[in-house]
Design goal:
Length: 716
């Protein structure tokens, strides 16, 4: 559509207003030949005397395109003629319409100037039928839908053509070689020895050879029994060997094998595609163990067994130089009972996911001579075992430096990039690893020794950004602390890095590098408290070069004092209001303590003593537990706030737990809404809930020595 030529056409104008006062907009039409193509022009005027010369909009349409020209702004758009916010009428008809306007009222508001305009429209759109000529814009709407459908059909046809071309040029899969490899590397040639014990004898069936045999696993008393064949006693889950074929297998009772058992796995396989391209197949593999039974004199008897291995491609990703990657998916149409390939994924819960899997070794040979031959996929797959090869190759195309990182054995860095966490990249255009990652050149070797540990990398990036030089031990300890740039920069203004580490270690009461998750969590929590203390002390105007302020005796008490000083007036008012508004928290403390209190050698857990303590807990740990919502639920008994502390430091907040009236933990968090020592603390809380529901809170478990002494006393 030649828009500039359409703009130069003089306006049709409107000779007079429409006498009917209900009419808001009036349309006039005309035909014009522009560029040897007939156009129909629709101009829409407001039904006012001062708006008869210039239309609100000019709508131009052909059998292949349409456009809307806004005369006020002088801009074109592809809006549909009936795309207003209510769904009725035309999009430029909104300003003077009431929000309660109904669908049936629209023809009264939008009129054509004369019958000639309607005839002109009907003649131009003679292949479009509408049921009511009063809704004359339906001809334009039908033309728009016809144009969009034609464009959609052309797009679908091009997509089908490209899909057929990809299928045609995709090499045929060597299924036999793939299944042989899967038998060794996915299913590890696992077999079953099915058995049925009959006294001292047992009937067995091997899934590897399908043979059945019997034997005795316990000696008999008769003379003939000494000539019977001895076998190992079959026990479920243990390994045995078949006396017929010699294969090893796992014993499984006949009664537990009446249903077919199937194991699934996945694998990637790369093939050359066209000249320099690669097609990466994602294959689902399966192995089935089937026991055959017949009716015999003693009931169901084992007749034979066999194994079946199969595989099917469920996705293909095509990589070509200079072109966007395309992933096709294998689908099934249940209505016609056929499988087919499609260039888009399924929706919702049926979405086909491509996850980590091993890479078939033949892939590396097939990729030679392609533009991905130097992707280092072979080296990375050897190190990882299972990986998402699709995401790896996509990331390699974006960042070819991955090859260098893999060969330097920075596997954790590569793993982060493959998962999409590319924020660790400092300069994506750099070719040197130190510039690419934003670390010192002389620390690259150290990072290689740590195999690209992300925590170490983050500290090395901070070292360079802060203009510091730290030893390897200091870097490891800072990584264990998980300190950020802001905190380190502030602390380094008043103390050395070694002094900072010594202070954190002294306050935490444990050393770095122990490998204990509890110690690591304690160090991180202590570091957060120490940094928070330094920030508050500095913001209150204290001289931070004073070693007394740098190293208080009790960091938790000093932190609380600084917090109280910083927010004294505000905090006092908040505590007073909370105590007045939720008094039952304090009243019910003794009763709730009998119900919830528990301690072991390391931790203790108890309910909140008062509303003030809950508010203080939220302030110290920087989470939302001090809000009125939690206070109200605790006050009314809908849920309760429990304080989990180290037994040695019972007054220092560590973890806050919310538990409901059915003894189910709703949530638990430590400082800054994080979960310190997550795995171990979750196990501890699970044990606590189990004891709570069993009514064993407050009952100390007897040691083995105490139980033995009690037994001896009872015997006397």
């Amino acid at each position: 559509m030649k828009k500039k030529a359409i703009e130069k056409i003089p306006y049709l104008t409107l000779p007079a207003c429409y006498p009917d006062g209900e009419v808001l907009y009036i349309g006039r039409t005309a035909w014009h030949n522009i560029g040897h193509e007939r156009h129909i022009i629709l101009e829409v005027y407001e039904n006012r005397k001062d708006c008869l010369q210039v239309p609100v909009v000019r709508y131009a349409a052909t059998k292949k395109d349409w456009g809307v020209y806004d005369t006020e702004d002088g801009t074109w758009s592809g809006r549909k003629i009936d795309s207003n916010i209510w769904g009725y009428g035309m999009c430029w008809y909104d300003e003077r319409l009431d929000r309660h306007e109904t669908y049936s009222d629209m023809p009264k508001r939008n009129r054509l100037y004369s019958e000639d305009d309607l005839s002109r429209i009907k003649k131009y759109f003679k292949d479009i039928k509408i049921w009511n000529d009063e809704r004359w814009w339906g001809y334009f709407t039908g033309n728009e839908e016809k144009i969009k459908n034609a464009a959609r059909c052309r797009k679908d046809e091009r997509r089908r053509g490209r899909l057929e071309e990809r299928n045609k040029n995709t090499p045929k899969l060597d299924e036999k070689a793939l299944l042989d490899w899967a038998e060794d590397h996915i299913f590890h040639r696992g077999h079953y020895l099915y058995y049925k014990k009959r006294g001292r004898r047992a009937d067995l069936c091997c899934s590897a050879c399908g043979g059945t045999y019997s034997g005795k696993w316990k000696a008999g008393e008769s003379y003939e029994s000494q000539f019977e064949h001895y076998i190992q006693e079959p026990r479920e889950g243990l390994m045995g060997s078949c006396i017929l074929c010699g294969e090893h297998g796992i014993y499984k009772p006949q009664g537990k094998a009446r249903r077919d058992y199937r194991m699934r796995g996945h694998a990637f396989l790369a093939d050359r595609y066209l000249e320099k391209g690669v097609v990466l197949r994602y294959i689902e593999l399966g192995k089935e163990w089937i026991l055959e039974e017949i009716c015999g004199e003693k009931g169901l008897e084992m007749h034979g067994a066999y194994e079946k291995t199969d595989g099917i491609e469920i996705a293909r990703t095509y990589f070509r130089p200079g072109k966007k990657q395309q992933t096709d998916f294998h689908k099934h149409d249940p209505y016609i009972g056929k499988d087919f390939w499609d260039d888009c994924n399924l929706y919702g819960m049926n979405n086909i996911n491509i996850s980590d899997a091993p890479v078939h070794p033949v892939s590396f040979e097939n990729m030679k001579g392609t533009f991905l031959q130097y992707s280092a996929l072979k080296e990375y797959a050897s190190a990882k075992g299972e990986l998402n090869a699709k995401e790896y190759l996509e990331r390699y195309i974006d960042f070819p430096q991955i090859e260098m990182l893999v060969k330097m054995k920075l596997y954790q860095v590569v793993a982060q990039m493959v998962r999409g966490y590319c924020g660790i990249i400092a300069d994506p255009m750099a070719h040197r690893p130190d510039r690419f990652l934003g670390i010192r050149k002389d620390k690259v070797k150290f990072l290689m020794e740590e195999q690209g540990n992300i925590g170490i990398l983050n500290i090395l990036k901070k070292e360079k950004s802060l203009g510091q030089y730290w030893t390897g031990r200091q870097v490891r300890e800072l990584a264990e602390m998980n300190a950020d740039n802001k905190n380190l920069g502030m602390a380094l203004q008043v103390m050395s890095i070694q002094k900072l580490l010594n202070n954190v270690k002294r306050y935490a009461g444990c050393d770095f590098g122990t490998g204990c998750s509890t110690a690591e969590s304690r160090l991180r929590a202590t570091a957060d408290t120490y940094f928070d203390y330094l920030h508050m002390r500095n913001s209150l105007g204290y001289d931070m070069n004073n070693t007394v302020y740098q190293r208080p005796r009790d960091i938790d008490a000093a932190h609380d004092a600084m917090m109280a000083e910083l927010n004294k007036e505000k905090m006092d008012e908040r505590l007073r209001v909370a105590a007045e508004k939720f008094p039952d928290i304090k009243k019910n403390y003794r009763k709730l303590r009998k119900r919830f209190f528990y301690e072991d050698d390391t931790f203790l857990i108890r309910p909140a003593r008062s509303a003030e303590e809950i508010v203080t807990e939220g302030q110290v740990l920087h989470h939302c537990v001090g809000g009125d919502n939690y206070l109200d639920k605790h006050n009314r008994g809908y849920s309760y706030i429990l304080m989990l502390r180290f037994k040695e430091m019972p007054e220092i907040p560590y973890i806050t737990v919310e538990i409901d009236d059915t003894d189910r933990i709703v949530q638990w968090y430590g400082k800054h809404d994080k979960k310190p020592d997550r795995e171990n603390m979750q196990k501890w809380l699970d044990i606590y809930v189990t004891r709570l529901r069993a009514g064993r809170i407050g009952i100390k478990e007897k040691t083995e020595k105490e139980a033995m002494e009690q037994m001896l006393m009872a015997a006397v």
